[in-house]
Amino acid sequence: MGPHLPLSADDVELTMLPLERATQLPPRAFTDPDVLAWELEHVFRRGWLGACHIDQLAGRGRFVMVELGGESVLIVADEDGLPRAFVNSCRHRGARIVDEPEGTVRRLSCPYHAWSYGFDGSLRNAPFTEGLEDFDPACNGLKPVPLAVVEGIVLLDMSGSAPSPASPSPAEHVGALRDHLAHYRLDELRRGARITYEVEANWKLIAENYSECLHCPGVHPELNRLSHYLSGESVTGPGLWCGGSMTLSDDAETMAREGGTNHRPPIRGLTQKDLRSVSYYLLFPNVLVSLHPDYVMLHTLWPRAVDRTEVVCEWYFERTTIEAEGFDPQDAVDFWDQVNREDWDICALNQRGLRNRDATAGRYTRQEYDVHDFDVMVAGRYLEALRAGVAS
Known about the structure:
Elements: H1 9-16, H2 28-31, H3 33-44, E1 49-53, E2 62-68, E3 71-77, E4 83-87, E5 102-104, E6 108-109, E7 116-117, E8 123-125, E9 147-150, E10 153-156, H4 170-174, H5 177-183, E11 190-199, H6 203-210, H7 216-219, H8 221-226, E12 241-247, H9 257-260, H10 272-275, E13 277-283, E14 287-291, E15 296-305, E16 308-317, H11 319-323, H12 330-354, H13 369-388
Antiparallel strand pairs: 1-10, 2-3, 2-5, 3-4, 6-7, 7-8, 9-10, 11-16, 12-13, 13-14, 14-15, 15-16
């Protein structure tokens, strides 16, 4: 059983209404630690969440460590270069096998008492266990975590129950978004830069902020000059995602410094329409994918407290672009680093405002369809739990 369900049917049913009649999630959805505790259990640990990009696991022994609510998962490339995921806890005394966010290891060895494991999780060496009664090394390997890779995005099911009726398949989770990611060949792109941010805001506020650009003229004047905030179109389809496109201004080639005219080669296979737009998609619950003509930007959201979120932002380019002489991603990185920090500041301001005792749930505007779609996915988890009688 998870924590007591902190939002009532009345709190979330109003959000589930059509946008024209819907009310946003109540302020305590963003400020109450009990809400976050419930969401960690029933949103993040139930079903698929995004962990990283497959490029971070390109080669034997390459690993990524993710943390969520005090729990840790180790993802590592095995002897064949295929990703595996395990509970990041030694089977002897429970110490973490790795404690860095990413890197490369020659072998999986516990730093405490030197128990070692194969990249398939099997126990290889356990000093001084010879002669123990009822100790079977085959039963003491690292505990696996369900893992899937969809168009370069590594997904985890931390409940360990996938697949199940409560946990759709990875293909069902990603749904029609898969075609958009495949069009940009996300699985073939390579990372060119990475920045980790600590944001003083609830994870849902960051997701909502990403899903609309009504704030862009006031908060992001440089971004709005490169792409008008009312341009583009919404995109829909099956799966747990939402988003759409925005159109680049006539004098812009991409989102970057120098007015967006860096002349970097575009991603292969894009249409003329793709070259004049940027698409922004949210894959529930924690992946933000921004598809540019010449690169893809990936954010992953990791709740650390009800009012604090770690955000990992990465920029991915064609391999040939990265390998070309003089490759420099800084124009894109600097542009989005500024936009990111502008977003983090406004999200923190939103967080502080919601702490007011008299704050109330607001209404959506007719330009916030994607915000509403995201909130409906959140509210849907609460209604599923209410219908299933999962209240405590």
